[in-house]
Amino acid sequence: MNPEIGAGVLRGDPGFPLPPAGGGDPGKLPARPGGQPAPRAARKTGLWVFMAVVLTLFMLFGVAYVMRMAYEDWRSLPPPPWQLWLSTALLGASGAAWELARMHAARGQWPRARSATLAACLLALAFLASQLWAWQALVAMNYPVAANPSNSFFYLITALHGVHLLGGLLVGGGVAVRLAQGARGERVETSILLCARYWHFLFLLWLGVFGLLFYVTPDLVQAVCTSLGIPRS
């Protein structure tokens, strides 16, 4: 497909509407009746592209984290404080609330969708608060940001995840406000669907981050490299 067409599809540009499900000329994308683009499909595609970029970013940080373990000044993090387990539960509950909102919106049960959306946003705020609490707990345990490279990676990666959740929360909060104002229909239903999908992605990403930071140790990396025949200094 022409790159200009692909960019126009992600922007929702009326000049670059999406092709019909039955196929068609990939170089000339026909519009829907009335000359309007297909915003639902374009928004879904845009989210998938964004999540792929975010995943790539975190994978690069993960590779850097593992590579940095080879240096002698590396000190592993302590067992995760209970606040991080609370954070995990809160983020999972927030994603579940978004999923409930999606189901209610698909059935046209808008009051329930509004309540579930509000609950999802409040749980996400509680997740961020729990993350800050976990940071304070680690500092109190003498693991400040500059004490060791592993500490720096912890604060950097968890902060990066929190920023991406905060961005999603701004969008989710907007959806909650629109529902409270009586918004209904396909557009708001699509917004709820995309928020639910993004929250599931953030939860899986958090599980990966959690496992990387606390359960991927130099000994584990050394054992894996040895089993694969990869020398490590």
From TrEMBL:
- GO cellular component terms, semicolon-separated: plasma membrane
Keyword line: Membrane, Transmembrane, Transmembrane helix
Task: State the membrane topology.
Answer: Multi-pass membrane protein
Q: InterPro entries this protein is in?
A: Cyt_c/ubiquinol_Oxase_su3, Cyt_c_oxidase-like_su3, Cyt_c_oxidase_su3-like_sf, Cyt_c_oxidase_su3_a-hlx
The compartments listed are:
Cell membrane; Membrane
Where the record annotates domain Heme-copper oxidase subunit III family profile, the positions are 44-218
Give the residue spans that cross the bilayer: 47-67, 82-101, 113-133, 153-177, 198-216
Q: Name one Pfam family in it.
A: COX3
Give the residue ranges for region: Disordered: 1-38
Recorded hits in Gene3D superfamilies, A to Z, give: Cytochrome c oxidase, subunit III, four-helix bundle
**What are its GO biological-process terms?**
aerobic electron transport chain
| Family indicated by similarity | Belongs to the cytochrome c oxidase subunit 3 family.
Q: What name does UniProt use for this protein?
A: Cytochrome c oxidase subunit 3
* Species for this entry: Pseudoduganella violacea
